[in-house]
Amino acid sequence: MPSPLVSGRAFAVRSALSELQRAEARLAPSTLEATGRVVSVVGRYLAAHPEGTNPFELPFTEWIAECKDFRETSGRAGDVFLLHPYMLHTSSYNHRREARFMINPAAGFREPMRFDRRSDGSAYSPVEMAVLRGLGVDHLDFTPTSPRRMIVPPRVAMQEELRKQELSRLGSVGA
User: Fold this and answer.
1) Does any domain span residue 169?
2) Number of structural domains found in the chain
3) Range of 16's domain?
4) 73-124 residue pLDDT tens
């Protein structure tokens, strides 16, 4: 069966996920508990909304209030952090004079997550397994009641408009 991950990044993400599974086995139970808590909070909310949600109107403040264990992480140049898509996260203030950079690319899925694979016996992805573990179940009968739709964040739409303007400008000067 092909990977449910988007094919352009599938090899890198698949390799990273297998490493993530090995790393998870070495994590302290409290770290898994903290991760599971936020996945549980977000998972319960999403399970209660089969019609879908607007990602710009999610109750982040309420979710944060339900979580008690917050971890600060830092890394060195080249370090990579793989987070579950439900993991709440934020940046911190840079107290140093040196610039620091971060990219936050998302690995998308070809198809929606499936939480009940009993009928075909296919394997759950690590992301699906974390949701089920967070919800305390081994499967979940969940059927979206609305069709999937592409949501373009306002920042991305603005960047695309600026890109088009720049291409138009460059075309008008013969570059």
Assistant:
1) no
2) 1
3) 7-146
4) 877 878 887 788 888 887 777 788 888 777 777 667 778 889 999 889 899 9
Please indicate, yes or no, if residue 151 is contained in any of the structural domains: no
Domain assignment present for 172: no
Question: What backbone phi and psi angles, to 5 degrees, belong to 40?
Answer: -65, -45
**For residues 87 and 93, what is the distance between their CA atoms, to the nearest angstrom?**
20
d(CA 123, CA 173): 54
Locate 90 and state its tokens.
């934020």
Phi and psi, residue 131, nearest 5°? -65, -50
The residue ranges of DSSP E strands in 91-147, in sequence order, are: none
Residues 6+ apart with CB under 8 A from 107: 5, 6, 9, 13
**Tens-place pLDDT, residues 117-170:** 988 989 998 889 999 998 999 999 998 899 888 888 888 899 999 999 999 999
Q: Is 109 helix (H, G, I), strand (E, B) or coil?
A: strand
Distances (CA, A) of 15 to 11, 77, 111, 125: 6, 20, 20, 13
Confirm whether 175 is domain-assigned: no
d(CA 68, CA 144): 30
Which among 118, 110, 111, 109 is positioned nearest to 144, based on CA atoms?
111
- CA–CA distance from 85 to each of 26, 27, 131 (Å)? 21, 19, 10
